[in-house]
Design brief:
The chain has 292 residues and is an alpha/beta fold. It is built from seven helices and 15 strands.
Length: 292
């Protein structure tokens, strides 16, 4: 059994020192509470980008926002990444954190990533491939869907908007991923009602049962400018069972057990992998393919 703890975290914009310090506090607390896997939301070190919405204002009081965002992002070989690597090793926990990362060689280039840290010292990086609205102004997109060995199984990562593209989860599951984490920074206008309080459960449920995987959806809390983050983190089992959910947008931690044996039980009963027709789908999905 794997104890997964999702930290519904409020990141302070452009204040990585404070954010990393608070992440470390959470990691120590959740490790002491028995966590095997600890997950943080998207851009937990930098806060979300501004303007948050197209045409909106920049609330950060800095002369050059793009340069400030680059400065707030972590260096791949820097102290912040090293500290998370050390915490994972010392506490014997696996970490998944949504982080803004600088390019290792080219100054000014940054990426929106989800980073895996294992107790054995392995670090795996996924770069967000589908960028939402103004993210395109700052981040260079990824072009790979990797999976990583962790927790005695295989783990895949995605970020926020990626969930709207079912091919991402399918590609990760097809490479053997049994646990898929989704780091979010999903928000809406402060004061406006939430259109669908179950939105995150709906999306995570769909990706979980389509593939027979554990889907862990960790969203951000708090406010930034005139927007508030929706929270409502959730964890879904391979058969669609809601293992746990947070029904609010405040800081909190969702703690759930993952029984990997449930994956084989569900898949063998439904046949969702053995009954697939990849050659048929490819004929219809290939650009210019023959649909007959």
């Amino acid at each position: 059994m794997i104890a997964a703890h999702l930290v519904q975290f409020d990141a302070v914009p452009l204040d990585p020192a404070r954010n990393f310090a608070r992440m470390a506090e959470h990691i120590r607390a959740e490790a002491a509470a028995g966590a095997d896997l600890i997950v943080f939301p998207e851009l937990a070190n930098t806060g979300y980008i501004e303007p948050l919405v197209p045409g909106g204002p920049i609330f950060a009081q800095v002369p050059h926002y793009g340069a400030a965002l680059w400065s707030a992002c972590a260096a791949p070989d820097g102290e912040e990444m090293a500290s998370l690597t050390t915490l994972a090793a010392d506490l014997g926990v696996t970490l998944v954190a949504g982080l803004g990362l600088r390019d290792a060689r080219i100054a000014g280039v940054i990426r929106n990533t989800s980073v895996l840290f294992t107790p054995e010292g392995r670090v795996g990086i996924y770069v967000k491939t589908h960028q939402w609205q103004n993210e395109k102004l700052y981040f260079t997109p990824g072009d790979a869907l990797p999976v990583f060995g962790a927790l005695g199984t295989t783990l895949g990562m995605q970020i926020c908007y990626d969930i709207r593209f079912p091919e991402v989860t399918r590609a990760l599951a097809g490479q053997g991923a049994q646990i898929i984490t989704s780091a979010w920074a999903s928000f809406g206008a402060s004061g406006a009602p939430v259109a669908d309080a179950d939105l995150f459960v709906h999306r995570a449920y769909t990706r979980a049962v389509e593939n027979g995987v554990f889907f862990l959806s960790c969203n951000r809390a708090g406010t930034q400018g005139d927007q508030r983050f929706f929270g409502r983190s959730c964890a879904i089992g391979p058969d669609g069972t809601v293992l746990g959910r947070l029904d609010h947008d405040e800081e909190d931690v969702l703690r759930v057990p993952l029984d990997l044996a449930e994956i084989a039980r569900y898949r063998s009963f439904t046949g969702i992998w053995t009954d697939r027709r990849p050659a048929l789908y490819a004929r219809h999905l290939a650009p210019g393919g023959d649909p007959t």
